[in-house]
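Bumping with the actual sequence this time:
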Amino acid sequence: HVQLVESGGGSVQAGGSLRLSCAASAHAYSSYCLGWFRQAPGKEREGVAAIWTGGGTTYYADSVKGRFTISQDNSKNTLYLQMNSLIPEDTGMYYCAASTRGGCSALTQVYFQHWGQGTQVTVS
């Protein structure tokens, strides 16, 4: 059974930082790609960042490059998203997801079979 549980969301002022965590079951962590996605109110869900679990190669949406960092701790089966220099446009529900079918480089949502429940990030 694949489980993904996000934490670390909250409210922060513009310019601040947050670190999101995603605790993954061992089965999920054997996936090819783990990613973060977000959905702002009234907007479609979009890819934020992704990482190949084997090699550690990372991919980012243009809107977060230089501000967000995705990383993984294999010993803890945990995925992280360090978010710095936050802006109001970063507000949304952030989801952790796992894919065994690729989709990493283009943050292609349809390839991600497993999703967490999400954690809310609000930047004011």
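The tokens above came from a reply further down the thread. The mean pLDDT is 93.
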